[in-house]
Amino acid sequence: QVQLVESGGGLVQAGGSLTLSCLASGRTVAMGWFRQSPGKEREFVAAMSRSGSTYYADSVKGRYTISRDNAKNTVYLQMSSLKPEDTAVYYCAAARTTFYSGTYYYMSTAYDYWGQGTQVTVSS
Protein backbone atom coordinates (compact mmCIF):
# COMPACT_ATOMS: atom_id res chain seq x y z
CA GLN A 1 0.00 0.00 0.00
CA VAL A 2 1.36 3.40 -1.01
CA GLN A 3 0.42 6.50 0.92
CA LEU A 4 0.38 9.92 -0.68
CA VAL A 5 0.81 13.12 1.29
CA GLU A 6 0.14 16.46 -0.37
CA SER A 7 1.36 19.84 0.76
CA GLY A 8 1.59 23.39 -0.52
CA GLY A 9 -2.01 24.45 -0.85
CA GLY A 10 -3.25 27.80 0.37
CA LEU A 11 -4.77 31.14 -0.49
CA VAL A 12 -3.36 33.17 -3.36
CA GLN A 13 -4.49 36.16 -5.34
CA ALA A 14 -5.47 35.86 -8.98
CA GLY A 15 -2.38 35.97 -11.17
CA GLY A 16 -0.24 34.49 -8.44
CA SER A 17 1.63 31.22 -8.20
CA LEU A 18 1.65 28.20 -5.95
CA THR A 19 3.50 24.89 -5.95
CA LEU A 20 1.99 21.67 -4.66
CA SER A 21 4.03 18.65 -3.60
CA CYS A 22 3.04 15.04 -3.19
CA LEU A 23 5.26 12.54 -1.41
CA ALA A 24 4.66 8.86 -2.06
CA SER A 25 5.65 6.29 0.54
CA GLY A 26 6.67 3.78 -2.12
CA ARG A 27 7.54 3.35 -5.76
CA THR A 28 4.89 4.43 -8.23
CA VAL A 29 4.61 4.52 -12.00
CA ALA A 30 2.20 7.23 -13.14
CA MET A 31 1.56 10.15 -10.84
CA GLY A 32 -1.01 12.83 -11.40
CA TRP A 33 -3.10 15.63 -10.04
CA PHE A 34 -6.86 15.97 -10.08
CA ARG A 35 -9.07 18.66 -8.59
CA GLN A 36 -12.61 19.00 -7.38
CA SER A 37 -14.70 22.09 -6.76
CA PRO A 38 -17.92 22.10 -4.73
CA GLY A 39 -20.76 20.67 -6.76
CA LYS A 40 -18.49 19.52 -9.55
CA GLU A 41 -16.99 16.21 -10.61
CA ARG A 42 -13.37 15.48 -9.92
CA GLU A 43 -11.40 16.50 -12.99
CA PHE A 44 -8.00 15.68 -14.40
CA VAL A 45 -5.33 18.38 -14.13
CA ALA A 46 -1.94 16.91 -15.02
CA ALA A 47 0.00 13.66 -14.96
CA MET A 48 3.45 12.33 -15.56
CA SER A 49 4.85 8.92 -16.34
CA ARG A 50 7.91 7.60 -14.58
CA SER A 51 9.87 8.14 -17.79
CA GLY A 52 8.86 11.78 -17.98
CA SER A 53 5.95 11.99 -20.40
CA THR A 54 3.52 14.69 -19.36
CA TYR A 55 -0.19 15.19 -19.84
CA TYR A 56 -2.26 18.31 -19.13
CA ALA A 57 -5.87 19.36 -19.14
CA ASP A 58 -6.52 22.05 -21.73
CA SER A 59 -7.63 24.43 -18.99
CA VAL A 60 -4.18 24.48 -17.37
CA LYS A 61 -1.83 24.09 -20.34
CA GLY A 62 0.78 26.81 -20.37
CA ARG A 63 0.05 27.74 -16.74
CA TYR A 64 0.77 24.54 -14.82
CA THR A 65 3.87 22.38 -14.88
CA ILE A 66 4.12 18.89 -13.46
CA SER A 67 7.45 17.42 -12.52
CA ARG A 68 8.71 14.55 -10.42
CA ASP A 69 11.76 13.45 -8.54
CA ASN A 70 11.83 9.67 -8.76
CA ALA A 71 14.61 9.40 -6.21
CA LYS A 72 12.41 11.19 -3.67
CA ASN A 73 9.14 9.59 -4.84
CA THR A 74 7.73 13.09 -5.11
CA VAL A 75 5.65 14.82 -7.74
CA TYR A 76 5.21 18.58 -7.96
CA LEU A 77 2.64 20.83 -9.55
CA GLN A 78 3.78 24.35 -10.26
CA MET A 79 0.79 26.59 -10.82
CA SER A 80 1.08 30.10 -12.21
CA SER A 81 -1.26 32.76 -13.57
CA LEU A 82 -3.86 31.36 -11.22
CA LYS A 83 -7.51 32.20 -11.78
CA PRO A 84 -10.46 32.12 -9.37
CA GLU A 85 -11.82 29.15 -11.33
CA ASP A 86 -8.72 27.18 -10.32
CA THR A 87 -10.06 27.14 -6.77
CA ALA A 88 -10.55 23.53 -5.73
CA VAL A 89 -9.29 20.72 -3.58
CA TYR A 90 -6.32 19.26 -5.40
CA TYR A 91 -5.67 15.54 -5.10
CA CYS A 92 -2.51 13.66 -5.85
CA ALA A 93 -2.93 10.24 -7.45
CA ALA A 94 -0.57 7.41 -8.25
CA ALA A 95 -0.64 4.16 -10.15
CA ARG A 96 1.38 1.04 -9.40
CA THR A 97 1.34 -0.35 -12.92
CA THR A 98 2.28 1.04 -16.30
CA PHE A 99 -0.36 2.70 -18.47
CA TYR A 100 -0.05 1.27 -21.96
CA SER A 101 -2.15 4.00 -23.46
CA GLY A 102 -1.92 7.72 -22.87
CA THR A 103 -5.68 7.79 -22.44
CA TYR A 104 -5.43 6.24 -18.98
CA TYR A 105 -3.51 9.19 -17.55
CA TYR A 106 -6.69 11.29 -17.78
CA MET A 107 -8.91 8.77 -16.02
CA SER A 108 -9.32 8.94 -12.25
CA THR A 109 -10.38 5.29 -12.21
CA ALA A 110 -6.99 4.25 -13.57
CA TYR A 111 -5.14 5.34 -10.43
CA ASP A 112 -4.67 3.09 -7.42
CA TYR A 113 -3.77 5.51 -4.66
CA TRP A 114 -5.02 8.93 -3.63
CA GLY A 115 -3.92 11.62 -1.26
CA GLN A 116 -6.19 13.36 1.20
CA GLY A 117 -6.33 16.55 -0.87
CA THR A 118 -5.07 20.07 -0.35
CA GLN A 119 -7.18 23.21 -0.72
CA VAL A 120 -6.19 25.86 -3.24
CA THR A 121 -8.15 29.09 -3.11
CA VAL A 122 -7.62 31.85 -5.64
CA SER A 123 -9.14 35.20 -4.75
CA SER A 124 -10.19 37.70 -7.38
Keywords:
single chain, 124 residues, mainly beta, four-stranded antiparallel β-sheet
Radius of gyration: 13 Å
Main pleated-sheet profile: 7 strands, mixed
In N-to-C order, the SSE pattern is: EEEEEEEEEEE
Taking pLDDT < 50 over at least 5 consecutive residues as the criterion, the unreliable ranges are none
Total number of beta strands: 11
User: Could you report the average pLDDT, rounded to the nearest whole number?
Assistant: 95
Total of helices: 0
State the helical fraction. under 10%
Span between N and C termini? 40 Å
Which structural category do the helix and sheet elements fall into?
Answer: mainly beta
Q: How large a portion of the residues is in β-strands, by DSSP E?
A: over 45%
Give the overall shape, derived from the CA principal axes. globular
Protein described:
The chain is mainly β and 124 residues long. Helix content is 0%, strand content 46%. The chain has no helices and eleven strands. The strands form two sheets. Strands 2, 4, 5, 6, 9, 10 and 11 form a seven-stranded mixed β-sheet that branches. The chain has a four-stranded antiparallel β-sheet with strand order 1-3-8-7, with no helix packed on it. The chain is globular.
